[in-house]
């Protein structure tokens, strides 16, 4: 079960089963044709941030900011902790398999929360991985052009 928040004020619950029955076809890179109740819908993913689980999606020429909360996020929230309480993250791992297109930081560099660290191409999408907190880059474990597996260590903080 996923909890989806749209434009920070509308919340929906979506099950994995309902996602599997979605009639969606990718028409081109990041663009989709969806059929719901015999009504065609045009959707496009404008941007995605896997660290923050935040997406900008254009549906029939309207743009929506979408936050996705998985089961762990919902448990953390239910316990009274903020989702952002994970600011003590000391490393960045690949959220999915992909290709490192660009690395925007160097070892020893000071970064602020939400600074772009690198770009990971996965499933035909360029995903900007951003810093989850202020800190200093201790090490960069990948190189530009390198293929990475899910959960592979990419960047470590001091």
TrEMBL record:
Coiled coil: none annotated. Keywords: Biotin. Pfam families: Biotin_lipoyl. InterPro entries: Biotin_BS, Biotin_Carboxyl_Carrier/Decarb, Biotin_lipoyl, Single_hybrid_motif. It comes from the Bacteria. CDD domains: biotinyl_domain. SUPFAM superfamilies: Single hybrid motif (SSF51230). Residues 80-158 form the Lipoyl-binding domain. This is Biotin carboxyl carrier protein of acetyl-CoA carboxylase.
């Amino acid at each position: 079960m996923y909890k989806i928040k749209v434009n920070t004020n509308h919340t929906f619950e979506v099950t994995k089963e309902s996602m599997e029955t979605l009639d969606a076809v990718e028409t081109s890179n990041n663009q989709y044709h969806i059929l719901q109740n015999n009504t065609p819908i045009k959707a496009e993913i404008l941007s995605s941030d896997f660290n923050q689980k935040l997406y900008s999606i254009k549906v029939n020429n309207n743009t929506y900011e979408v936050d996705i909360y998985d089961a762990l996020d919902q448990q953390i929230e239910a316990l009274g902790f903020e989702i952002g309480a994970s600011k003590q993250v000391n490393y960045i791992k690949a959220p999915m398999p992909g290709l490192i297109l660009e690395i925007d930081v160097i070892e020893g560099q000071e970064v602020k929360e939400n600074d772009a660290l690198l770009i990971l191409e996965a499933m035909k999408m360029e995903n900007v991985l951003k810093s989850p907190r202020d800190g200093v880059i201790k090490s960069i474990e990948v190189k530009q052009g390198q293929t990475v597996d899910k959960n592979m260590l990419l960047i470590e903080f001091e």
